[in-house]
């Protein structure tokens, strides 16, 4: 596999980057910009240009057929007056918040538990992992089948699920979306906490033990503070992931019942690719990126993560 | 240290095992029953008559083709990433130019861009390029969006190579190309395998780009096949779930045989 990278550099390129005679020894064998150029051009074309275009398109009217035309602030004015848009932002934030509240405690407990080196823990951790391997599409399709009111699990447990149509009410649908998200992504955060918990210096626990601290005191006074940076990383991942949730909604609820689970990412898709109002879709997308960035920055600020305080201080 | 069994955590871990296992159990047993048997037995009962018809039907009804398309997309994405990212990371780590630093910043910015954010202009760019409903149109953006994480992983690995080794080769008069091929690539093997796994997972499980950039049966990838199956024959639960199993089979096989690389690749997902 490693040899497959060999043709990556054609001879023409290396000739250009070879240092001219007379340069100091430390410059010999240093790669020039030409080594980075192909990747930079490729990434620029298919990631940075579209990102710039999303800003341009948010000020344009485009139906997907003719050329886009400039419409000024029209898309933005319409969006800010659009009750579904405002509701969708609120729903996105609600679903994201629910995700953080459900996943963080479970991932923390499982992660700290899985950090132990016992054999049974390793085996169970391997099983917990499986949902993370699957595509969001497969997971959504799977849960939709499992929760089918007529043929799925709810039909077997009426005492628990009532009429079994979990996706028929707003509360039920939001609950299912949060649950399916947690089912798939908790293992990722478990993994983050597992790694971080293993890195906590043993000497801290030994000292606490000598002072007579029990398991719960050790957890709250050593483990939790030591995991602070991981909690922030994991929360930011959850926020960005939650705000961009899309496949789950498309497959499980189609934004329904009504517009009850039409979160912003899904609304963007509807605007652009169902109503063919691509300008409005671009504006929703841009708004979503801005919201995600602001929330992440606030989290970083509030937590003091940007000041990079090490958990190793005083050791 | 004392090791009293942690009852609370042990109990919690079993509850989670149940939640993870239940839908996977329902899925597996459903796929080995006929539709009529599944409806009669309910989702939880163990089937009395096993059949592979669901899998055979799925493969005959296009999933073979979708599978092939997904393999094409995955292999191409991994190929592009392996071709472009290692030289990039090498330049980032070893070059002294300001432009290279600027390029690295660009890729770091890229870490923060979700694909949802650019899907509208991506549709515009790909249609303008005449690549709509063409697998190439799916491959290019998928590869681009896998690149920032891969660059980050490889740059980290290449930074760990001691400068002495670079200098020793440079003193011997080795060109950048020779240093790259004989020193950097061999010493970055673990990073390269993580990058392969990460980009392969992104490509195999990708949904949004194929959803928006393709439409015909000839260009359908397996996630799109699942989505369309669900929309068109959502009531055929055993058939649908067999398709889900087919879609995850290759990843599960890799998981069995290369667990370490896969887990590291997934942590790469975490970096996104």
Please characterize this protein's 3D structure.
- The complex is a heterodimer of chains A (315) and B (272).
- Helices cover 65% and strands 1% of the residues of chain A.
- Chain A is built from 15 helices and two strands.
- In chain A, helix 12 packs antiparallel against helix 15 (278-303).
- Chain A is globular, with a radius of gyration of 25 Å.
- The model of chain A is unreliable at 1-25 (pLDDT under 50).
- Chain B folds into two domains: 1-51, no CATH class; 54-270, Orthogonal Bundle (MetI-like fold).
- Chain B starts with 6 loop residues before the first helix and ends with a helix.
- The chains are: A mainly alpha (315), B mainly alpha (272).
- Chains A and B meet through helix 2, helix 4, helix 5, helix 6 and helix 7 of A and helix 1, helix 3, helix 4, helix 5 and helix 6 of B.
- Chain A: The chain crosses the membrane at residues 33-60, 89-114, 126-146, 166-185, 231-252, 278-300.
- Chain A: It holds the Pfam family BPD_transp_1.
- Chain A: Residues 89-299 form the ABC transmembrane type-1 domain.
Features:
heterodimer; A: 315 residues; mainly alpha; MetI-like fold; 15 helices; 65% helix; 1% strand; globular; disordered N terminus; B: MetI-like fold; 2 domains; 13 helices; 0% strand
CATH superfamily of the largest domain in chain B: MetI-like
Which CATH-level-2 architecture of chain A?
A: Orthogonal Bundle
> What general outline of chain B do the C-alpha atoms trace?
globular
Low-confidence stretches of chain A: 1-25
Number of helices of chain B: 13
User: How many distinct beta strands of chain B?
Assistant: 0
**First-residue to last-residue Cα separation of chain B:** 37 Å
GO biological process, one term (chain A): transmembrane transport
Protein name (chain A): Xylobiose transport system permease protein
Transmembrane segments (chain A): 33-60, 89-114, 126-146, 166-185, 231-252, 278-300
Region (Disordered) (chain A): 1-27
